[in-house]
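Notes to self, V-type ATP synthase beta chain:
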Amino acid sequence: MIEYLGLKEVTGSLVVLQGVKDVAYEEMVDIKLNDGQLRAGRVIDIKDDIAVVQVFEGTTGISSANTRSRFLGKALEIPLSKEILGRTLDGLGRPIDGLGDIFPDASRDINGNPINPIAREYPRDYIQTGISAIDGLTTLIRGQKLPVFSGNGIPHDALAVQIVKQAKLTGDDETDNFAVVFAAMGVKNDVAEYFKRSFEESGVLQKVVMFLNLANDPVVERVVTPRCALTTAEYLAFEHNMHVLVILTDMTSYCEALREISSSKGEIPSRKGFPGYMYSDLASLYERAGMLNDRKGSITQIPILTMPNDDITHPIPDLTGYITEGQIVLSRDLHQKGIYPPIIVLPSLSRLMKDGIGEGFTREDHPQIANQLFASYAHVQEVKALASVIGEDELSDVDKKYMEFGKIFEDLFVAQAKDENRYMDATLDLGWRLLGILPREELDRVDEAVLDKYYRPYHEDEGQEHHLNEKDQDKD
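result:
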């Protein structure tokens, strides 16, 4: 290997070397300082014989005259073994839990390999999260990428923890074959501690691999963190035939880090200052979810992002929505009403849901009750708009029933405790009890045979008793 002495330029977290030969994009670099300290870098730009290197630990203390650089001839790799389950790592995949180094069975390039579309298996089976608004109305399908659109101050962290604690496979698959890869980017120390403590106290840590990139960690590490997490997921899914749920939070921090690096490179900005290639960069992450037809494992993604100013048309949620298969939208209005999780069901959808529910998957009435709940709740919004004009007292009896349905739907179906794990049948039964508030002739999205089997008028005491019993049953 050739060792280069001196630097042409030092700018922010970037160093520029001149006179380099045979250097590749994203190649790793060892940078040795005067005092013998060794830092890692990655090539992010090449022009003729000039290479721009992003230094992971920053450029403080680096001398442009005496620094020695050596190109390693390979991209960043992460050491992997099945014993990585239960470990907590930093954004570069280095252990930070005090349990020692990982003894690898393999090392993998964090950039992964593209999946041949022909080799993909179409997702069918669902993952039960125990959250009614997700399981009943935006069902998560194994192998899907289903983002959560949130906002600052909305409890998406608590929702992420609840999904990790409650998510499980259904059907004949063994739960031992299920794992969670959790990657947090740009989080504060107290949030990182909350994640660790929650997983430890609930006893799920042994099936979780955690990657933590803190707010004071280098920006370039934030760009690497989701790639390390997805490489780990690919190893567990396609080498050990495990079903892996990957939760990435917060993708807004990732995109802002991407913007900062792009700006430091002097690239021409696009919308809101983000680089023009952000769409393809996000796609290189999201498209690493899926199933292969010659492997038993799967990778399911739940990216979580906070929408700046709650603007769903912002470039980050906008581009994410183009790439992924639906979205779960959290509402600030519901959060201010004290409803948890504050999932607003009308703009939320799961595009793969229709092929993973119904007879043989969940229950034969699931597609129809989901359609009916959507339709009825949508009509509630129309009635609310009418009531704001003419007054609630002037509404018809049927419209008053819709107003009652809307309130109880939010209070009993959408809302649930942070430790409440509802099974799929319980979610569907609760949906039928709430539809009993409405006259039977209003339920025009359901077949008569299904209505005969499941519809019955709503009784408030019975509905509330069911709600509490399901919570107690899970605790037992």
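- Residues 440 and 452 are 10 Å apart (CA to CA).
- Residues 463-476 have pLDDT under 50 and may be disordered.
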